[in-house]
Amino acid sequence: MSGWLSTRNVATAVLLLALVLLPVYVELTGSRFLLTLFTRIVILALAAVSLNLILGYGGMMSFGHAAYLGIGGYAVGMLAFEGVYSGFVQWPAALAVSALFALLIGALSLRTRGVYFIMITLAFAQMAYYIVAGLARYGGDDGLTIQKRSEFFAPLNLSNKVQFYYVCLTLLFASIYLVWRIVNSRFGMVIQGSRSNDTRMRAIGFPTYRYKLTCFVIAGTLCGLAGALLANHTDFVSPAMMYWTRSGDLIIMVVLGGMGSIFGPLFGAIALLILEEALSGITEYWQIILGPLLLLVVLFGRGGIDGLLGKVRHG
Amino acid sequence: MTLFIEQCLNGLQFGLLLFLLAAGLTLVFGIMDLVNLAHGSLYMLGAYFAATFAAWTDSFVLGVVLALGATLLVGMAVEIIAMRRLYGRDHLDHVLATFGLILFFDELVRLVWGPSGMSLSLPSWLNTSVRILPGIDYSAYKLSIIIVSLAVAVFLYFLVMRTRIGMLIRAGASNREMVGALGVNIKLLFTIVFGLGAALAGLAGLMQAPILTVQIGMGENILILAFVITVIGGIGSIRGAFVAAILVGLIDTLGRAYFTDLLRLTFTKETAATAAPALSSMLIYLLMAIVLVIKPEGLFSASGK
Fold first, then answer.
1. Contact A131 B278 (CB under 8 A)
2. What CA–CA distance (Å, rounded) separates B217 from B229?
3. Domains of chain A
4. A39, A45, A62, A275: which could join A269 in a potential S-S bond, CB 3.0 to 4.6 Å?
């Protein structure tokens, strides 16, 4: 650990400041597209932050994290479809359903480990995908358009793009703070301990299953919040937002940014989504570049962006 | 009754097809300890190769044989270029790297064959039905899928349990350093095993091609089913994959065919009609959940690989 003025801290501070000041830049240049792109980045970064809690710190390789994006989104979408627009109903509902789903999936999946865990979370998320795609009342495969965004008290209006961006950004910062507090608490120490050596943690008397399940549920709930935001951002929900490749995208963000680092997922989300934008500007077949690039990152770029910025990686 | 037997055969056929896919997956995992998400891409490539070669050579059989060879070669190339560097790495690395391969292959197929799908038409001698029991006709092609898959299952059993290569494969699965130290070319062995898994996936893909359309992403949904099967059967166990694949094939097919009627016994017609599609697609995941509760390591994990 170097002093306060390390490359990493300066880079992080500049980035956060840039995110806060982005709407000002957008007002000056009139580039609406940039605001939309960054709202999306901030929302997906929130999802990645929640995944990092279980993947980076807990060592739980969940390949079904996008399910909560879809569940949170559909909670908002379905309630709006039934005429309930109040955010005070929609958002708690999104969180509650995500938490419940995470509890169910976690209780079953955490009985296993390693590759089994990857495949099982993937399979259960895909099950959720098929269930949602089978809901004919709510549009099935085609998805569901949301007529009105979630309504809160008077001055707050989510249809205002700048306001909505700041809501998302505030929630992102709050979740990063929450994850930081969790990780450095006694609870977080147990979680990290069980990542390193689960058997030993149990031997010294920690019921790690319960700790991990709690952590899994917290992460799922946070990602459900991201889902509710995403539904408000696109004014549309469809099964595609919980397709398994989206879970893959979230994992890429976490690993690209640096697993088990507080700001890593944010770096990763920005890097991946801007890379996608840039590559799709070069060629229509941009994934043919992204795919091998990913392979190279896995083979040679351990530690992610956060690692490049000079942090000593633990774990 | 006729319909029921036909549905059971459909289930068996689907299950055996899934077995081909799951066998490759479980073989590669059991021996190289490698999670290969790109297995579905090889399934897709098999179908595209078959459709292309059949059109070029104007012969279904020749197209199939060439496609099998081509997927084998692609599999071996993928192993040499990418997979070889991933052995012994974290499973998360495997997931990410092979996820990258999926993106690459999907886009490559779109670049080479275009975004619209292809179709592979059957020759007339397969496009008929045969009488399997008095009064029951069944599609000759689906019957031939059952026969070919069963033959492959028997072949795999003999290859792994009764030949020298199989012995080396099993030895490599339990201790690869030791096998290498004894002078076996373990690198070549792994390349061959990966190619074999790829060819199995390609075979499943090209056999499914005349039934469904050949399209991008066709391997992804079926890959998840193959994962469910390997989890139920126990990762690394070919026998487990076989049992689980047939189980999943039957449950999935029969569930889709009869679940609406079953629900109608207790619910109204409308409820049954709306709930059945969602619930029947849940059945196999329910099966997986039950197996996990009873045996977290899968049905055949402890017994032979």
1. yes
2. 20
3. 7-308 (1.10.3470)
4. A45
